[in-house]
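testing teh design pipeline on a random one, pls ignore if ur not involved
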């Protein structure tokens, strides 16, 4: 198996099984020993991630505005500490409405990807004061 991030082969191993919070599925979590990324292999299961996320999030209350959150503020501090410097850009894979990205300063590049259409339509409007 190859790593989904660094694309190298032969450095990926299964580290544990995780029960999905979305559907009745227990899947293997893999880790790459080179880049330390963790992921699951959707090819191992007969699932459609797009429809799973859509079904899950369409029943959630849509966000109406951006609110600073202590949990996400702490995650940003942890990331800066791990990196040892301030990031110049950040990519949030599975960003939901982008709330986590909004906790990074607006002078860095912030990008997010999201499979769920229902999250896309519930992204709160952000007022830019500049
Ligand atoms: Zn890797």
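output:
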């Amino acid at each position: 198996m190859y790593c989904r991030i660094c694309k190298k082969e032969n450095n990926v191993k299964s580290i544990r099984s995780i029960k999905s919070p979305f559907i009745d599925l227990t899947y293997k979590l893999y880790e790459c020993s080179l880049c330390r990324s963790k992921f699951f292999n959707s090819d191992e299961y007969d699932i459609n991630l797009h429809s799973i996320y859509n079904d899950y999030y369409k029943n959630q209350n849509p966000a109406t505005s951006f609110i600073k959150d202590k949990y996400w503020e702490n995650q940003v501090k942890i990331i800066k500490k791990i990196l040892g410097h301030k990031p110049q850009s950040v990519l949030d894979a599975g960003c939901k409405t982008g709330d986590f990205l909004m906790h990074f300063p607006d002078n860095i590049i912030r990008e997010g990807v999201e499979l769920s259409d229902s999250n896309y339509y519930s992204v709160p409007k952000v007022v830019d004061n500049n």
